[in-house]
Amino acid sequence: MDDLVAANCILADSGVLDAFGHVSVRHDRNPERFVISRSLAAALVTSADLIEYDLDGRGINVRGRGEYSERFIHAEIYRARRDMNAVVHAHAPSLIPFGVSSTPLRPMYHMAGFIGDGIPIFDIRASAGITDMLVKDAAKGRALAQALGNKAAVLMRGHGVAVVGAMLPIAVGRSIYLDLNARTHVMKIEVASGREVQQAVDAFYSSNGSDAKARPDDLFFLAMEEDSMIGCVRYCVENEVPMLRTMRVARAYQRQGVGLAMLTRFVHYLDEHQIRNVFCLPYAHLDRFYGLRGFVSLPANEAPAFLQERLQSYDPAGTLYICMKRP
Length: 327
Prior knowledge:
Layout: H1 2-13, E1 22-26, E2 33-37, E3 50-54, H2 71-80, E4 86-90, H3 96-100, E5 121-122, H4 125-128, H5 138-148, E6 153-156, E7 160-165, H6 168-186, E8 188-192, H7 195-207, E9 219-225, E10 228-238, E11 241-249, H8 258-272, E12 278-280, H9 287-291, E13 296-298, H10 305-314, E14 323-326
Parallel strand pairs: 5-6
Antiparallel strand pairs: 1-2, 1-4, 2-3, 4-7, 6-7, 8-9, 9-10, 10-11, 12-14, 13-14
Helix pairs in contact: 1-6, 2-5
């Protein structure tokens, strides 16, 4: 059960689970039972907090401990989906708008491909009328499981989401990437230039660990959350060579798909304008990231002369940076 404890901690650390979300796993020796924590914030769960339940939501070893009222989400999904062995119920704020609006949640990048065939929405009013929206009994749990069907997740209108997986790591990963995908969904990528934008970009770079200085005639691809800049990459032409330069993402938004969203918009611009042979000098460990959008590594001696000089000034040992080109 150490993996279940770890899953609670990972989901809490990722911001997917708050004080009320929960994660469970089907019992490895009895498929008619599952294990979940006592009623406790996920970040605090230890192995001593785990409780075994049957598929009616009856505790086997409760021993007076508090129970999640919504354990029936898990019980009825396990009953309906014999192919699934882990369930996460979360209230990630990023997902709430997609359960109450007409805008569908679509996969924005490959890590959310598991919702490529759609994600259903469960409206508890259809089966239970006006309630407190909590799935606190088997009937409501069955209605939720029916809404889930054969999909990987179901949005719960005005409430949250239930995510399933054939294994615990799959359900955890899906929950994290579903949240990141939703955040990327509402993020804007703006394309702009000019002195005012350049000054804002320079300030953003400075506050995010870069001493790079942009030029007013650069073209900026800005990741915006509401009115705040959370990322930037710029396009410029140097010595008649088109360049991608200085990608930065605000620390609080790193590893959330922001960089890939900017890079994707950047290469769309290149394709729209039929711009070819675009160079960049990223850190060597980012070769796979840039490779996702068509950049390929080049031997340094195949780069334009001024870029060879720049690489040498950046990295005399030739180990930190590489030259890449999008043909």
